[in-house]
Amino acid sequence: MLGKKHKTLGEFIIENQSSFQYSSGELSRLINAIRLAAKVVNHEVNKAGLIDILGAAGDTNIQGEDQQKLDVLANDIFIQTLKNREIVCGIASEEEDDFISINSNDEKHQNKYVVLIDPLDGSSNIDVNVSVGTIFSIYRRITPAGTPVQLEDFLQPGNKQVAAGYIVYGTSTMLVYTTGDGVNGFTLNPALGTFYLSHPDMKFPDNGKIYSVNEGNYVHFLQGVKDYIKYCQEEKEDRPYTSRYIGSLVSDFHRNMIKGGIYMYPKSSVSESGKLRLLYECNPMAFIAEQANGKAIGGRTRILDIVPTELHQRVPFFVGSKNMVDKLQEFLDKYK
Ligand code: AHG
Ligand code: MN
Ligand code: MN
Fold first, then answer.
1. How do residues 236-287 score in pLDDT, each as one tens digit?
2. 93 C-alpha to center of ligand 2: Å?
3. Within the chain, where are the H helices?
4. Is 271 annotated as a binding residue?
């Protein structure tokens, strides 16, 4: 049982505040606001099954609409929570065409952080009661505080992230995040509405036996990826590996970090850049992975070194246990 011996997220945030490089309490307040939004979204996501059961009574279209609503709802909850607390100067979201500026042209407001979010990741899983998530990424703005926030504040390479994390609404709800000093996981006790530090200092094992990829797209993959998948399936001392694909990046990543594994969303002959978004999905997960002894590449490059050119940019994404990512890289390099 989660009880006294587990620190709460609130306690953890206060204890660690002084270790931030430019600590003013602003980042702590921001993480606190995300914690609050996560609880509200969790409450909505938990009810979704119930709504689906009622909705499924006749019309399948309504289920589709409900799901879409939940995407929008999660988006609204995160944006409103951050807006109301006047805690950031800008937000970019997978669900919004453009970035949102918050009092950023008001000299009184000296907020220096921008947040980028995927409010509901894996949302096609909602319908079938399978885990979904939220992903967030935090940067310090590069334009001066008190002036309107600009696109360039959001288009920073992932290596400039100040913090990143995800919430997985699974069999239990967890908030996992890093501020650049390791990765810690907190489990929500739903009866108390409190997150407890249940997974301190999370690490990817160096090796793993799980590979996660949508193999339905196999025929479209580049030869290097195809060869690596065949390598995973070969009969050797420690192979074949196990294939696990939930279709929700957050959940697939979370499992692989705990058990050891690799997640792949390659580019293919039909989608030149892959599917996942650099700013809302790949960068935050790559930051977490590197902070947890893992590795994340977008082909030949380290994800965190890519300089973004647009908000909704997509990139191929390979993330997981170091040795597995290195092995994949070997296969990719054969076809340079
Ligand atoms: P989102 O629900 O935010 O659009 O993200 C879905 C993403 C990711 O979570 C998942 O791993 C991937 O899309 C699944 O894509 P496929 O269905 O193409 O495998
Ligand atoms: Mn997503
Ligand atoms: Mn999404």
1. 999 999 999 999 999 999 999 999 999 999 998 778 899 999 999 999 999 9
2. 11
3. 9-16, 26-55, 60-84, 151-154, 223-233, 249-259, 283-291, 322-333
4. no
Same domain, 13 and 129: yes
Question: What DSSP letter does each residue of 116-157 carry, written as one string?
Answer: EEEEEETGGGGGGT--EEEEEEEEE-SSPTTS---HHHH---
pTM over 0.70: yes
Are 105 and 157 found together in one domain? yes
| pLDDT one-digit tens code per residue, 169-210 | 999 999 999 999 999 999 999 999 999 999 999 999 999 999
Does the beta carbon of 247 lie inside 6 Å of ligand 1? yes
Question: Which ligand gives the minimal distance to the CA of 75?
Answer: 3
Enclosing domain of residue 318 = 210-333
Q: Is the CB of 127 under 6 A from ligand 1?
A: no
CATH value at residue 78: 3.30.540.10
120 labelled ligand-binding: yes
| CATH number, position 248 | 3.40.190.80
The answer to whether residue 84 sits within a structural domain is yes
Instruction: Indicate whether 3 belongs to any domain.
Output: no
